[in-house]
Amino acid sequence: MLQIGIIGVGFMGMTHFEAAKQVNGARVAAIATRSEKKLAGDWSDIQGNFGPRGSATTDLTGISKYRDHSELLADPRIDLVDICLPTDQHESVVLEALAAGKHVLVEKPIAIDLAAANRMVAAAKKANRMLMVAHVLPFFPEFRWVRDVVTSGQYGALRAAFFRRVIAEPNWSADMSDFRKLGGWGIDLHIHDNHYIGLLCGTPTAVFSRGLLRDGLVNHVSTQYLFDDPNLTVSAVSGGIAAAGLKFGHSFELFLEQATIQFDAGTYGDSWVVNRPLTLITSDGQVTNPTPGGGTEWCAAFTDELQTAVDGVVSGQEPRILSGQLALDALRICLAEAESIATRQPVLL
């Protein structure tokens, strides 16, 4: 059985810990955190913008507990290191884990600095170890269903797509309070869209963006992605300037040769509201609401993500959906968007 070590026990570390309970062929064998309270199993201070709060009685039976992440990396039992630390700590710990001979799954974004991301990808190649980046969006049921439909070609080629992802300025996490450490919402939030667009359509040749910069970082962005294919138009809107009552919202609309697909949902106040369920409108006039499947647990998408990482390590084949290169390319797009906003010109990638 593959052994996982989680470094960082904040909200995302807790999410991965819970998600791993349903993964086949692997288990969490160790955690590392500087918090004595969390090492004792009291995770009651943990909360996020979805899912439950942490438990005061988290069962850590049979799990090695380390105060220093270097001790976890020295544990010979650990096959896959799952890094759930704040973004500004990603590079140093990823490089240390790769040097220790471990395969790595690191939370998104890979980094906020392109040079750092390049160093991480290069280090993985040199160490002959996998560097996987945990972009979970493609594992959510509606997004997984859309990707399957588009790649299958069953409704013809994709002609146009629009994506939207917005939040109110978060106040639920100290780690989220300083947008500068996150690279602004143009990276921390919007990189989800850029990663998904790269997975669905490939990397664009250029971007043309308008938006709002704060301290040089993207606070809100509207982007037109330019592809070599003249028959493909893709755009996205994302940012952190929504009113407080709109804690989170995301949607998409895709136009294929023989179908249109729509979805729109978000957190309004304290309620999850589906404005438009996943809807398939076909050229024969039919309108249906496909059932995309997926688990019912609050962390089911993260279980699927971890299962993909584990299967990749076991098979020796890095999954493209989690590849470090795809994550690096998504970051390149984010930084090009910031440049395009500043210069008011298209920026080549």
What does this 3D model show about the protein?
The chain has 10 helices and 15 strands. With 349 residues, the protein is of the alpha/beta class. The chain folds into 2 domains: 2-134, NAD(P)-binding Rossmann-like Domain (Rossmann fold, 3-Layer(aba) Sandwich), CATH 3.40.50.720; 138-301 and 330-348, Dihydrodipicolinate Reductase, domain 2 (2-Layer Sandwich), CATH 3.30.360.10. A 9-stranded mixed sheet has the order 14-13-12-11-7-10-9-8-15. A 6-stranded parallel sheet has the order 3-2-1-4-5-6, with helices on both faces. Helix 2 links the parallel strand 2 (26-32) and strand 3 (64-66). Helix 1 packs across helix 9 (300-315), helix 5 runs antiparallel to helix 10 (324-343) and helix 8 (191-201) packs across helix 10. The chain starts with a strand and ends with a strand.
Quick take:
This protein has 349 residues and is α/β, with parallel strands linked by helices.
Secondary structure layout:
Blueprint: E1 2-7, H1 11-20, E2 26-32, H2 36-39, E3 64-66, H3 69-73, E4 80-83, H4 90-99, E5 103-107, H5 114-127, E6 131-134, H6 141-152, E7 158-168, H7 185-188, H8 191-201, E8 206-214, E9 217-226, E10 233-242, E11 246-256, E12 259-268, E13 271-282, E14 287-288, H9 300-315, H10 324-343, E15 347-348
Parallel strand pairs: 1-2, 1-4, 2-3, 4-5, 5-6, 7-10
Antiparallel strand pairs: 7-11, 8-9, 8-15, 9-10, 11-12, 12-13, 13-14
Helix pairs in contact: 1-9, 4-5, 5-10, 8-10
